[in-house]
Structures are given as C-alpha cells and as structure tokens.
Amino acid sequence: MILLIIIGVILIIAGFSLKDNGNPLAKFSNPLRIIGFLVILLGLFSSMFKQIDAGKVGVKSLYGNVEPEVLNSGLHIINPLLEVTIFDIQTQNYTMSAIHGEGAQEGDDAIRVLSNDGLEVVIDLTVLYRVSSQEAPKILRGIGENYIDKIVRPVTRTRIRDNAVYYDAVALYSTKRNEFQHRIYQSIEQDFKKRGLILEQLLIRNINLPASVKASIESKINAEQDAQKMQFVLQKEKQEAERKRVEAQGIADYQRIISTNLTDKQLQYEQIKAQKELAASANTKIIFMNGKGNAPIMLSDK
Asked: For residue 165, what are the contacts with CB-CB under 8 A and spacing of at least 6?
C-alpha cells in the first residue's frame, strides 16, 4: 500500500513538473497526473481489505497506538492507514534439547540445573503453548512480536532451575519426576498467563545424571533385583518343603490306619481274591497256595 502511494505521488509530481517547464514532454503531464491519482487510489483501496488466515488473529495499530480489538480469521474492511500485525494462536512448541538439531536453538540447548544434593542434572524439555487471541494486543503493546525469546525461553529455564533445588538428583530421575513436572508446570503457567500466553503442556523428555550417579543407581537396582530373586527362590523352597511335609503326614496317617484296622483274615481274603484273578488269566493255568495250617490248595481253569 505504501509503495503504491509513493509511486502515485511521484507520478503526480512528475506530471506537474513537465507542465511547468514547458518542454516537449508537457503533453504527458495530464496522463501522468491521472495515472498517479489512480495508483494512489489503488493503493488505498487495496489496503482497505485485509485477510486473516485460519488460526491467526490481527492486531490493529495506528501510528504506534495499539487498538484493543482484534481481527479474527476472515476478510475485513479496515482503515487504509492502519497497520495490522499477525499473531499465530495455534499450538506452538519450543524444545530445549542436548541433541543437535532437535531444539529450537542450534547446538546443545538443554537446561542444566543444580539439584538439592549439589549435583548437575541435564534436562531436555518441550513446552506446548499458544497465544491468547484476546491478549494479543497486550502482547504487542508490552512485549512485541518476539515473545518466544523474551518470555517463553527465559521464563521456562528460570522456573525449572528455581524448582529443581527442592529435589535431589536421584529423586528427579526416578520417584519425583512427575511431581517435579507438575510443580514447574504450575509456576510457568502463572507466568505465561500474566503475559497473555496459555501453557497447554510441559513435557520432560529426558533427565541425564552424572555418570557416577548413574552407576550407583544401576548397582542399587541390580542389588534389589537379586534380592527379589532370592526371596522368590526361598518362597519356592518353603512351598516345596510344606508339600513334602503334607505328603509325609498323609503317608504316615495311611500306614497308621492300615496297621490299626487290617486283620490276618482280611489279608488272607484279599490274597485269595487276587490269585483267583490271576488264575482266570490266559497266561496262568495253575496256582498253588499254602493256606495257613492247611494243605496246599490248587486252583485251575481246566
């Protein structure tokens, strides 16, 4: 718009200059002035229409004075002299990582903090946030368009360092990780809200400990696993010993019952029954039995 107006003004001035000088090009004076006016009108007319894409809002300002109303997505007719600044209100992410190429900054951009026990812990983090559409004029007025470097990055890194001192390194790495993440989420959310930003989620991607601490943790975990394994073996042996005890008790009870109730006549009767079954077999023809105090008895199927 400004460029078209400037071109139009130049054409009008040139038209008047040619007419005043009375040179042979004076015949182009009127056409140049007409074209200049048309270019100015075209610039003004084109600047009256402003399209805002989906997921964005426009903030209007006139000579540095920011207006409180925002332009939502769609086509709008505005004052040609207004300047419209576009803000993205969709979810954005900002990653700080030790791995090259993963973070928003080049190189190692992980957050290094000191834990409660004085150890350095390296944290990889991703912040999911968005601009509040109603607060966009406030952001433009108080912060500007570069709210990422002015607010998102420094606030996040500062709050993580402030809250890490309440935990020791091993707790951050294991048992207190979720508590730490929730704590820094609450503190960062409050700071963002004051400045027109909405914190959606805070993701701790990785927590790296010093090598000596890692070795100590791994040794402790291995010892706990060995203890659990030995406890399982002992429990299994106890169950096996209990099974054998019950089995022995059952055998002893059986023998006691048999020795108490079984008589000689009953034993003789059972013996005769068994040998009669053998005599009826195809492979057994004759069986000799010695009855107690009697002559041998012969059974045959012939």
From this structure: 113, 114, 115, 116
Q: How confident is the model at residue 295 (pLDDT cuts 50, 70, 90)?
A: very low
Cα–Cα distances (Å) from 52 to 35, 56, 59, 71, 145, in that order, read 30, 7, 10, 7, 17
Q: How far apart are CA 141 and CA 66, in angstroms?
A: 7
Residues 6+ apart with CB under 8 A from 76: 49, 50, 51, 52, 58
Strand spans (E) along the chain:
49-52, 56-62, 65-71, 74-77, 83-88, 92-96, 111-114, 120-131, 197-208, 286-289, 297-300
The chain-wide mean pLDDT, for the chain, equals 79
Q: By C-alpha distance, which of 29, 36, 30, 31 is closest to 7?
A: 36
Task: Determine the Cα–Cα distance for residues 280 and 263; give it in Å rounded to an integer.
Answer: 26
Residue 207 · residue 160 · CB < 8 Å: no
Looking at residue 134, the DSSP 8-state letter turns out to be G
Segment 292-299 shows an average pLDDT of 50
* Assigned token pair, 20: 């005043």
Q: What is the pLDDT of residues 90-148, one digit of tens each?
A: 999 999 888 877 777 777 888 888 888 888 888 999 999 999 999 999 999 999 989 99
